[in-house]
Amino acid sequence: MASGDSLVQFSPLNVESPAANAATLDTRNAHPVVDFDAAANEEAVFSGVMPQHYAGTTGVTVYIHYAMSSAVAGDIDWDVAFERVGDQQLDIDGDSFAAVNSVDNTTVPGTTGLIDIVSVAFTDGADMDSVAAGEGFRIKVTRDAASDTAAGDAELRWLEIRET
Amino acid sequence: MATLSAEQLGEIHTDVMRLWSDENLATPITKAQLTTLLGIIDPEVNTAEQEILDAIPAGPEKAWLTSNPHISRRLITMVADKRREVL
Hints:
The complex is a heterodimer of chains A (164) and B (87). Chain A has one domain: Jelly Rolls. Helices cover 0% and strands 45% of the residues of chain A. Chain A has strands at 6-10, 24-28, 31-36, 43-49, 60-68, 75-84, 101-107, 116-122, 136-143, 154-163. In chain A, strands 1, 2, 3, 5, 8 and 10 form a 6-stranded antiparallel β-sheet that branches. In chain A, a hairpin with a 2-residue loop joins strand 2 (24-28) and strand 3. The relative contact order of chain A is 0.34. The model of chain A has no long low-confidence stretch (mean pLDDT 97). The model of chain B has no long low-confidence stretch (mean pLDDT 95). With 87 residues, chain B is an all-alpha fold. Chain B has helices at 6-22, 31-55, 60-67, 69-85. Chain B contains 4 helices and no strands. Chain B has one domain. The interface between A and B is medium-sized, with 20 and 18 residues.
């Protein structure tokens, strides 16, 4: 696949809530969203299979489509991490997410409900927990509410993974 | 009467942000600015509560409210809530 081609998309209806600090499913004007609190670092997990057409050379870029519930000032920080499940690679009784990559200090849109898209790049290999084509994986998105400044919830609307 | 603790102000901070999020209320201030705001409002309310009690003429109502601050505070809160409704 060529750089920029879409590999996987997730909607809020695909969310798998972690046992603790889970972002919560909500709706906004009938749009499903995942709400991330402003006072605590909350997480949302999605799982999928990396498409066979993933080239495994340049890595992937994760695009976060979000709106703010109320904030029209301040900035927002997001952390993203991959976990390779693979073929006899991971005992799913435990978590094994790689270190996070982040997109920080993004000024939020000036209108609540306006979707902004931010991106986080991962190089192929350990940076994305060595997820390869055809392997199952999970991706965890965390709002770093302890560090960002925007007041009120952030609403995740879509998540897309593209070939970098 | 006393001002609220940092923990109590933090609880208000969290509750307010959740309320505004639920209402999709456009919020042009940051979390830090909200913290500053609450830090100003609380001691002002504390002062105002005492001034309200001081303004009540001597008599059974003043004695009752002075010895039962939870009742005076509830009255003040109810008046404040109604004032918010008529904005």
